[in-house]
Every structure is written in structure tokens, then in C-alpha cells.
Amino acid sequence: MDLLRYRIRTFFKYKDLIKELVARDLRLKYRRSFLGYVWSILNPLLTMVVLSIVFSHLLGKKIENYPVYLLSGRMLYDFMKNSTNNAMRSVVVNAPLLRKVYVPKYIFTFSKVTSCMVDMVLSLVALIIVMIATGTEFHVTILLLPLVILQLYIFCCGLGFFLAQLNVFFRDIQYIYSVVLTAWMYCTPIIYKLDERFPRWFHIAVKGFNPMYYYISQSRDIIYYGNWPGPRIFWGGWLIAFLALAIGVWSFQRSKDKFVLYI
Fold first, then answer.
1. How far is CA 217 from CA 78, 163, 234, in A?
2. What 8-state DSSP symbol labels residue 257?
3. Dihedral over Cα of 163, 164, 167, 172: its sign
4. Rounded to an integer, what distance in angstroms lies between the CA atom of residue 26 and that of residue 36?
5. Is 96 helix (H, G, I), strand (E, B) or coil?
6. What tens digit of pLDDT does each residue of 47-93 get?
């Protein structure tokens, strides 16, 4: 209990540094950009347009209101991909600072995931624009979206901590992870529906071993279908999030004292 209180006090002690790191990441991302933060809206919109043309028309996908279906899943996957990629490199990139002064190492990883979450929240404007343009009904269930984002944020923090400490010791993990992300995207029902066209074993694999299925399914339930998420999907999402966080924090804390020998 004393250790928990100490870590909470440490976190609040460095809260201003976290805010500055998050603000710095956002400034650097849009530095020298003509449209600036507007790209957070335009990027998902342009991606949605391209994918909608390809998969909704050229491939004959029979999914009603495909742009909203696509964007309600794609924005969550992009957040996971960007946040964990940035978190993975967070310790190595800040090695010069870590060698000079004492700063809790987890702050850099945490700030990367947080800055990506802020960027994703800005991209929600793109989803609202698409819903209005396509005449999609705004269901009251959309008020549950912050809970889904929070679940995914916790999951990404945990995965980010795990990847960050792993990347310190094995730098080629970032190349392996890029391949994993590609496979992960195609094994997640983002651009397609998980229906009878797929074999039973694929259904079992996706629903049982793909964390993103839980978060994207919740997002689609409350935005696209206007339903309350089922208890298995809802509570499963929380369980996976906190399990990932526990593993990530444990592995990060266990190896953090060795970082200085490798960065």
C-alpha cells in the first residue's frame, strides 16, 4: 500500500512534465503543416473515402452505410497502432535525457500513448461529419463511447509499457512489430464483417484471441447499430485492458533499472 501511495504521489509530482511532453508531441506532429490540427480530421476522412471506394464498390461489399461502419472501427485501430508504435520507441528516443537527469522512465511511454489519444479524440470530429453526411441516426448509446476509448487507452498503455522495455534490449522488435500490426489489422473485422463467409475456426480465433475485436465490436454496437454492448464484450474489454496494463507495468518496472546499460 505504501508503494502504491508513493507511485501515485510521484505521478502527480511530474504531471506538469507529462502535460508538456504531450503538448510537445502534438506540436512536433503538426509543425510546418499548413493545415495543422485539421489533419486530425482530414486524415481519417481521406482514408475512409479511399477504402470505401475500394471495398464498398470495386469489391462489392454489401455493408449498409459502409463509411460509418469502416470509420467506427478504423479510428480505434489507428489509435492502437500509432500509440503502441510511439510508446515502443519512447525510452530509446529519450535516452540522452535519461542519462543526464532522473525522471521516472514510464512518463515518456505514458505521454506518447496520451498524445495519441488526444489526436484520436480530435479525429472523432471526422466520424461526426461522416455520420451527418450519410444521414446516420445518433443513438443515445453513443454516450458510452468514452468508456470504450478508456478501455482501449488502458490496453494501449499496458502494451506500450511492454513494448518499450522490450525495445531497449532488442531493437529489432520494432520491425517485427510492424509485421504483427499488418497481420493484426487483417485479422480484425475493420474493413469486413465477421459473418458466415469465414470458417468457424477463424471466428473462434478472432473472438477469443484478438483484443481489438472487443473494442471495435463495442464501438460498432453503440455507434453503428445503436445497441448496448453485450456483457461478454463489455466486461471482456475491461478485463483485457487491465490484464495488459498489469503485465506491461510489471515487465517495465522489473527491467527499468537495466535501461541505462543499453540506451
1. 15, 25, 9
2. G
3. positive
4. 10
5. helix
6. 777 777 767 665 545 778 888 898 889 999 999 999 999 999 998 88
